[in-house]
Amino acid sequence: MNIEFATESDYQYIFDRDKHLLKSLIFSKIAGKEIYILRNQNGENIGWMRYGYFWDNTPFMNMIWIDKKYRNNGFGKNVVLFWEDEMRKTGHKLVMTSTLANEEAQHFYRKLGYKDAGCLLLENEPLEILLTKVI
């Protein structure tokens, strides 16, 4: 598996799968190098990870997506560790993410060393768990 920054040629792949990102923001996230693309040995896209910044200064992982047939092979873990290393190289000492309390992802993040840091409760939504990790 290769992990690299998304390019404009990845736009359609991301657009077709990322239902949480406004269409108008995809190109700016690509230009800002805030989306990593995961590719298999044949160069085919198999997933992505995108992030932003909480309070405009703390890297915040917004979304990991692995195409169904590639799940449970360690690709999610690999991209998280890759991202953490990249954030460390740029001088960051803390990273964040979140997940819904009714999702299994919370266990994935805790296995990777993320700690519960709080929560957010929006009307008619499950509890959103905020997680942090010192890197």
From TrEMBL:
Record InterPro entries: Acyl_CoA_acyltransferase (IPR016181), GNAT_dom (IPR000182), N-acetyltransferase_domain (IPR052829)
Signal sequence segment: none
Pfam families, per database record: Acetyltransf_1
One Gene Ontology molecular-function label: acyltransferase activity
EC number(s) from the headed UniProt entry: 2.3.-.-
Keyword Acyltransferase: yes
Keyword Membrane set for record: no
Keywords assigned by UniProt, alphabetized: Acyltransferase, Transferase
Limits of the N-acetyltransferase domain: 1-135
Protein name (Swiss-Prot/TrEMBL): GNAT family N-acetyltransferase
Organism, as annotated: Cohnella boryungensis
